[in-house]
Amino acid sequence: MIYRQRRIGFVTTSFPRYAGDFSGNFVFHMAEALAKQGFQIDVIVPAAAPSTTPKGARLVDNCRDWLRVFPIQYMYPGSLQKVCFGQGAPENLSRSPLTALLIPALVHQMWRRIEQLAGQWDGVVSHWLLPSALIAPRIPGSTIPHLAIAHSGDIHLLRRLPAKSLIAATVAKRCRHINFVSRQLRSEFIHCLPGHLQTHTQNKTSVAPMGVLPNTCVLTRHAAREKLNWRRFTVLYMGRLSPIKGVAYLIAGMEHCEGQLVIAGGGELRPVLEQQAKQLNIDVQFMGSVSRETRDLLFTAADALVVPSIQLPNGRHEGAPTVILEAMQAKLPVIATHTGGIPEYIRHHSTGLLVPEKNPRQIAKAINMIKENPDLRQRLVDSAASMAAQRGWDVVINNFTRMLFE
To answer: With 226 labelled, which of 21, 80, 219, 341 sits at a CA distance of 20 to 30 A?
Structure first.
């Protein structure tokens, strides 16, 4: 179904403010997919601290005629605006609990802007339940349809709050539909609700990961490897370098593998991981954050992608890492840990290989299995590619518009 000349409000805590590469921001890509269906998009997002502003950067909404971005200034001086950016609100609050004192000002300022703009909206999409889904529909006299999208970070935060039942019930009542990126997250949310609301809420929920972008690399695998000057079996990790990603266990596992490890992504753990690789004498290349073009080149050239995510001691776990579907679409075999929502998208020995979390030897065993068994590699990529083909944004965005308007 195609909708024309309508405007949708996005209420979110994460959105690119400056023009450049957007490959890692699924909120932007959802907005872009809706724009291709004829929608205009307004984005309400907290402003970042001035220190994060790239020198000479061009505003993203000046580059897209379908987009208006409204960064919310909620604290002065701006250097105090540290609730949402960096590694995300849950991590920021965990590292500095006093950051929570800024939340009322953030919520108040976001609400004021929503109230000003909501009369122009035909629908509203909130990414992350807290605070987005709580404040997005609170427009006096309004019946704007509201789709909330829940990710692992906000469900984890919700479960830790003393008033979680009341907050979950409030979110459920204010949404036309709630989408979760994994079944486990939906189950955790439902169990936060009072018993009398659980069945009713279950009926207006769905489970679907965010969409994936097509691989843009036109080179063959051999040509891509030549361009990168790769001569050895190459294991790829792509993502943030943060505790939940478990990259240290992958580096440790490479002690038992013949080949090189390429790590694409930035984060606070990079110095620690570089020191670990040096101590173990592991052949590891740290590339930092990469562009979409480089990302697709790496997917094309690598021999396997490893997603070594873990569950943190506080209970935080992954939802559905988009990188898994991106690799599947690029016909790159995936090895991932059995944690969070990952097993919902990888069937062991069918669409990938699952290993126990925090187990370097099992990671190494799976890597060597793919290295030594070309038939297994081909079977995995063929099965996974057919599944990932149904996860492109051009396909999944139709489901999201139905959730919002029907």
So the answer is: 21
